[in-house]
Amino acid sequence: MSEYTSLIIDIKKSRTYDLQDRNDLQVYLSKCVKQLNMMFKESIRFDVTFSAGDELQGMFYDTVSAVMYLRLLSILINPVEVRAGIGVGEWNVRIEDGLSTEQDGPAYHQAREAIEEVYKMQTQRFRISSTNNDDVLANYMLNASMNYIQNQNYIQSRILLLLELMYPFVNKTVNPIKVTEVKNLLELKAVSIISKNDKKTGDITLDFNNVQVIEMISITEEAIDAEDIIIKKNMSSMIAEVEGSTRQNIDKLIKRGNSIIIRIMDYMALKYIKKAYGGNYDL
């Protein structure tokens, strides 16, 4: 029987928010999930949806796509932290036309086990659980960029999102990402409750006409230096056009936010996860 990947996500310390902020955050999270479900529709078996309280759950055809989805969601809602369990295994209790919450099987059990382990961890917020001996190294690599992301302010996080959307990681050479989807995600981040609560947002004067998918970065198993793959010519200039800023200022924001380091770490993690667990579907 084929293996699938179940994803369970929850918001860390969600009960510490006051009622209004918690409601606003859940509305924003719902919009992000709806957009990501459309972006990843070819890779999703069951849409990511709320299952209980602030918990989200969904099923993917492959592990790489589940991790890609999780990465984008975590960047979209940063500095709010999410925790996640990723389970790889069979799906044998099937309600074909149902929701992810109505399904069951080893993939779901592994995901639940993974997120329960996260609750006990100090240095990990995401975990993969499977019958694969590669879980330990995969989990280390999956969390390597965590502290860098958590230390970003809102503007640095928005620049990272622009890098993710304009130079996206993909599994194949055909790019199915639509410019409208990219613009929608960027707009969500720009007008979110998160931006309003950050004192370093600055004036939001984004030029959405300059938002485009410039170059996709394929996740391959080839032995290629990650820095050569991640750093692209005129990258800062292209982002500056969207931000209404200068290339020099964007260079500083990328450096101070450690965005290149984050993307190199995550690219290498995705390469390893693809090799260890497979990943044959695009975004």
Explain this structure.
By secondary structure, the chain is an alpha/beta fold. The chain has 2 domains: 3-134, Alpha-Beta Plaits (2-Layer Sandwich), CATH 3.30.70; 150-268, no CATH class. It is 48% helix and 14% strand. It has 12 helices and 7 strands. The chain has helices at residues 19-39, 63-77, 106-118, 135-142, 146-150, 154-166, 179-190, 193-197, 226-230, 235-243, 247-256, 259-277; strands at residues 3-11, 44-52, 55-60, 82-90, 126-129, 169-170, 217-218. It has a 5-stranded mixed beta sheet. The longest helix is centred in the N-terminal third of the chain and has 21 residues, at 19-39. It is globular and about 55 Å long. The mean pLDDT is 85.
Task: Give the structural class.
Answer: alpha/beta
Question: Termini separation (Å)?
Answer: 24 Å
Compute the number of helices. Answer: 12
Which architecture of the largest domain per CATH?
Answer: 2-Layer Sandwich
User: At the fourth CATH level, what is the homologous superfamily of the largest domain?
Assistant: Nucleotide cyclase, GGDEF domain
Compact summary:
The chain is of the alpha/beta class. The protein is built from 12 helices and 7 strands. It has helices spanning 19-39, 63-77, 106-118, 135-142, 146-150, 154-166, 179-190, 193-197, 226-230, 235-243, 247-256, 259-277; strands at residues 3-11, 44-52, 55-60, 82-90, 126-129, 169-170, 217-218.
